[in-house]
Amino acid sequence: MKILVTGTAGFIGYHVVRRLLERGDDVVGLDNINDYYDVRLKYDRLAQTGIKQDRISDSELVRSSRYPAYQFIKTDIKERKDLERLFEKGKFERVCHLAAQAGVRYSLENPHVYVDSNLVGFVNLIDLCRIHRIGHLIYASSSSVYGLNPEMPFAIRSDTDHPVSLYGATKKCNELIAHSYSHLFGLPTTGLRFFTVYGPWGRPDMAAFVFAKAILEKDSNRILGFHIIGPFAPELIQEVTNAMASGGETGLIVNGMHIHPALNELIEAALGSLEEA
Prior knowledge:
This protein has helices at residues 11-22, 39-48, 80-90, 106-109, 111-131, 166-185, 207-216, 220-224, 233-245, 263-276, and strands spanning 2-6, 26-31, 61-63, 70-74, 94-97, 136-142, 189-194, 252-255. With 277 residues, it is of the alpha/beta class. It is globular, with a radius of gyration of 18 Å. The model is unreliable at 221-232 (pLDDT under 50).
C-alpha cells in the first residue's frame, strides 16, 4: 500500500513509519523539522530510518539508505504548493497525518504557529485527500479537546465543547473539519485522541521524561502536576497501522486512553531504572 505519513521526524510518526515499512508498505514521510524541541533528536530518529541529515534538502524527496520503499521530504504542511506536487506524484492510497504543532504551554506564547500548522496545514491536507480520493485519512487529535470536562474517565461522547488551550481548540477544529469532509464528500476519516504517549525515542517534554528528570533533581512538585498517562508507544502504533489497513468510516473518533499504566507504576519503574543506572 502507498502511504503518506506526516510528522515522521516526530516521536509517534517515527514509530509508525518503521512499523509500516516492516510490514511491506511503500511510504513517503514528511516533516518540517521545526525547533519546538532539540532538532538533534528529530534528525537522529530520521537517521534510524536511513534518512541522513546531510542528504536532506527543502522540498526535495530523498530515498532511505536502509529501507528502499521509504522516501522523505522536508516541507511544511502549510505550504500548499509543495503538498499539491507531492500528492500528484505520490498516488497515495492512505494518509496518516501526525504533523502538528504540539504542546499546551507553548501555544500561550506562539499562537500563530498553531494556526499555521494545525488549522491551515490540516485544511490543506484534508482537501488534497478529497481531491485525490484518498481511501482513508487517519489524523492525530488530542485528549486536550476534553478541556474543562470533569467526567472521568474520558469517553468518546464526553463533552469537548470547552477546551482550555489554543492547542486543544485547534484539535477540536480538526475533528469538526474532518466530520464535515466525511459528511460532504464521503471521505473516510479516523481521528485518534492521543493522551500522554510514552516510549522509546519519546519527546523530552512528555511525562515519562519529565518524571525521570524530576526524580534525578529530587523535584516532587513536578511529578504531582501530572495525573493522566497515556498508552505505551508500541501498542498505540499497532492500533494506528491497523486503522490504515481498514477502509475506514466517515468521521470516526477513537480514544487513545484505554492502554495505560497506573501513575505510581510508571514512577516506580522510573525510580528502579534510575537506581540501576
